[in-house]
Design brief:
The chain has 161 residues and is α+β, with helices and mostly antiparallel strands. The chain has 4 helices and 5 strands, in the order βααβββαβα. It has one domain: Gcn5-related N-acetyltransferase (GNAT) (Aminopeptidase). Helix content is 34%, strand content 22%. A hairpin with a 2-residue loop joins strand 2 and strand 3. The longest helix is centred in the first third of the chain and has 18 residues.
């Protein structure tokens, strides 16, 4: 198994994995996270494909025997005043195909993404994770991440007529 930069040929698989992430999050909290719909695979794949040539973006895949088993996506960001955050690397996605979990692939993807973001000179790396995704939180904590923000969601009351 190796970690490598994603290529154009990976985009359809990235879309499938992205749709899996959408489904997983929706299953965790259907009020907060969008549900997959027709076109989610193509949309997610298209978005990740658009990031392949962006100088501040990093898209990596875990590959074994020519098959993509998972991916990581992050980018370098400047000051974000609404978040009260200075320049940072942002971990957006890490997902391993469920049939290949438990083999340390997520950790390898995270380590490779952190190494690439660090190489680009970021002073810190931040991420968000679903409240109910304890497995991911343990991975991130073992990698040295600490809790700094809590997202809270309130559903708006339905308006009549």
């Amino acid at each position: 198994m190796k970690i490598r930069p994603a290529q154009r040929a990976d985009v359809p698989t990235l879309g499938k994995l992205g749709a899996m992430m959408v489904q997983m999050h929706h299953d965790l909290d259907p009020q907060r996270f969008i549900a997959p719909r027709p076109g989610t695979e193509q949309g997610y794949g298209g978005y990740l494909g658009s990031q392949l040539d962006q100088k501040d973006s990093v898209v990596l895949v875990a590959e074994e025997d020519g098959k993509v088993l998972g991916y990581a996506f992050g980018h370098v960001d400047d000051y974000d005043y609404p978040s009260l955050r200075g320049p940072a690397g942002i971990v957006e996605d890490i997902l391993v195909d469920p049939s290949h979990r438990g083999r340390g692939i997520g950790k390898q993807l995270l380590d490779a993404l952190l190494a690439e973001l660090t190489k680009r000179g970021v002073p810190r790396v931040v991420l968000s994770t679903a409240e109910r995704n304890g497995v991911a939180q343990k991975l991130f904590e073992k990698a040295g991440f600490r809790r700094t923000m809590i997202e809270m969601t309130r559903e708006s009351p339905l308006r009549s007529g």
